[in-house]
Design goal:
The chain is of the alpha+beta class. It has helices at residues 15-22, 28-36, 65-71, 115-125, 159-171, 245-252, 266-276, 311-320; strands at residues 2-5, 40-42, 45-46, 58-61, 85-89, 93-98, 140-141, 150-156, 175-184, 190-198, 205-208, 216-227, 231-238, 283-290, 304-306. Helix content is 24%, strand content 27%.
Length: 326
């Protein structure tokens, strides 16, 4: 029998979710079979799969030690080059600047060099994360940026912080996210409300009518910072957080993001690439502010994190709008 004591990194979650992370190499059906057959007990008592673990609970698993080790293969830590910059860090959260071109999570083309794995490398090197001691808990991001969008990404370093951050993201008005972008044409400051739906391959979305089955509302606030005859520099705030929301929403009203290969003006993109050597969309997660932090993160009230434009995007902005050079 294997006995485990629940610490703060594993409390406040369902027992079945905890076991799936802990016994990450075990078949899911085996975990539920263990729960049904009373092979899992908490404080000596059989519990159902929806039992919420509390700190200092004693979890007993009727597994031999060799089988337990087989099922709890730890998270792999790779020796990766750290490509992100740390914008803010404390013992609960890590906020980083992701460069364009770096995936947050693995996909079919890249399963090692991701932002998430680089963060694990960073925390491991600092001695703040050890997969052999974490028993299934892995620090992780609470939101996404497209591969070729640069800027702010928030990571939770503890289970409680991850749970509170995820709840704040769901409530929408707890964390305010602001982006900088340059779009085609002169776009006025305005509030955009529309509806989108993912295409079957999940890599594209399209704007649809409100009554379309499975349509999701998009709510975007656009502030014009400056414009010239051909382009506008925009400060964009997301009220909802849909896939490719800024890119598809701006394109839907005739002001696509420059450099956007999926929703942009393809002829304009050729000019942008030739003149400014930009191979991806000009979109940068510029600022976050904690408006209504909850739980263990209440101390972040009104905390604002700003991430300046990367060198290339700043250079392009200055050239397009005839600003003083760097």
């Amino acid at each position: 029998m294997k006995t485990l004591i629940i610490d703060e990194n594993h409390a406040n979650q369902r027992i079945d979710k905890y076991l799936k992370k802990l016994l990450c190499q075990a078949p899911e059906q085996m975990i539920y079979k263990m729960l049904r057959k009373k092979d899992v007990k908490v404080n000596g008592i059989r519990v159902k799969e929806n039992y919420i673990l509390k700190e200092n609970d004693e979890v007993s698993l009727f597994l031999y030690e060799d089988r337990f080790l087989e099922y709890t293969k730890p998270q792999t830590i790779y020796e990766l080059k750290i490509e992100f910059d740390v914008l803010y860090e404390d013992d609960k959260i890590l906020i980083v600047n992701k460069p364009a071109g770096l995936l947050i999570h693995e996909d079919i083309n890249e399963d090692m060099n991701t932002l998430s794995n680089q963060v694990l490398t960073y925390l491991y090197q600092k001695g703040e994360y050890n997969p052999y001691e974490s028993l299934g808990f892995v620090p992780g991001p609470v939101h996404r940026l497209d591969r070729n969008t640069s800027g702010i990404v928030i990571f939770g370093k503890t289970m409680r912080a991850l749970q509170d951050l995820n709840e704040m993201m769901k409530k929408r008005h707890c964390i305010e996210k602001t982006y900088l972008t340059i779009c085609k044409g002169h776009m006025k400051s305005q509030e955009l409300i529309g509806y989108m739906k993912k295409e079957s391959d999940q890599s594209l979305v399209k704007v649809v009518s409100k009554n379309t089955p499975n349509a999701l509302m998009m709510h975007t606030l656009v502030e014009n910072i400056k414009s010239n005859q051909n382009y506008s520099l925009l400060r964009v705030k997301l009220i909802t957080g849909r896939t490719h929301q800024i890119r598809v929403h701006l394109a839907s009203v005739g002001h696509p993001v420059i450099g956007d290969s999926k929703y942009g003006d393809f002829e304009l993109n050729k000019v942008i690439k030739k003149d400014y050597h930009l191979n991806h969309q000009f979109l940068h997660a510029y600022q976050i502010q904690f408006i209504k932090p909850i739980g263990c993160l209440k101390y972040l009230q009104d905390k604002k994190i700003i991430c300046p434009l990367p060198f290339l995007l700043e250079k392009i902005k200055r050239e397009i709008f005839n600003e003083n050079q760097l």
